[in-house]
Amino acid sequence: MDSAVLDKLLSRMKKIRVEARLDASFDKLTTIGTGGKICVALFPDALPKLVKTLRFLRRSRVNFVVLGRGSNVLASDGFFDGAAVVTTRVNNFSVRGRYVVAQCGASAAALSRALADRGLTGGEFLSCLPATVGGAAVGNAGCFDQCMKDVVVSVVAMQKGKVRRVSAKNCQFAFRGSAFKQSGDVVLSVKMRFQPSSPDKVRETVARMREKKASTQPLNARSAGCVLFHENVALSRLIDEMGFKGYRIGGAQVSEKHAGFVVNIDKSTSLDIYLIIQRLKAALWERYGIRARTEVRLINFAEDEYDFFSKRKE
Ligand SMILES: Cc1cc2nc3c(=O)[nH]c(=O)nc-3n(C[C@H](O)[C@H](O)[C@H](O)COP(=O)(O)OP(=O)(O)OC[C@H]3O[C@@H](n4cnc5c(N)ncnc54)[C@H](O)[C@@H]3O)c2cc1C
Question: Is 210 part of a structural domain of the chain?
């Protein structure tokens, strides 16, 4: 980043009291624990500060990425010459009757506990996501037949510098996707609706889901969740069938417990993980003719150049 631009950015952040770190790196900000240094990481701790930060970055044409809990991203090992805006401190939510309004950085797990306390059902899946509500909305995250699409009423987003309310219909939720994933618009807050039930019933469902997840997925290892997806096919079963469990490149490995996960077992680099993803894509294509899509969000990768499918356009 041009040093004059960086100086301006730092002085603006000081003025609006947003913490700016010059020593941040993606390995500390992601659940998989890999990725290179970041020119500057910004930690707004209130919604108006987040809005001001985003407006400044846009006006100054600074390249930036938004990060929630970093549980669905793989950042390259190279230097990221831009800003990472971390939302986790913008994390309030309020519950009124069946409705919840959550700021983008609210913890999905904390929200699920509040829903259980109030006996509201429909958000039990949130207890299984190491996510922020904003990150979950962008990727329409979900599990056990529940997902964000089922509960979102509307989203307030930053679109080209303007704050706009977007109805659920216009969020264009799709399997692990949304309009925001395509556009790069930033989700500021999410309004959701749940259904009345009883605290005991909700807690029971949460416990069942969490137990199932813990028994089938490597939750204690460093990962970014499932690395690949396909709308109609359970890829992990096929990856397992091809014998990839335990397949290793450098410090990364296809999980022995769940073939959809790639885990950082020994100081993996992002390149190790990326290469495994491409190997799995190639194998799924060659063996089953299945075009798997990358579920983890790649940051600072020349994806088009190296992606297995880049030279195999349909
Ligand atoms: C152990 C484990 C289990 C998982 N299980 C599941 C599961 O069962 N189901 C499932 O769907 N996922 C699962 N995941 C993946 C991940 O938790 C979800 O995709 C989650 O929704 C990502 O949220 P996040 O806050 O961490 O977003 P991040 O990973 O920080 O960001 C993901 C993407 O969204 C963007 N983004 C984040 N916040 C915003 C915002 N406010 N506005 C605009 N863009 C934003 C980022 O730029 C990035 O492109 C799992 C991950 C792990 C590590």
Answer: no
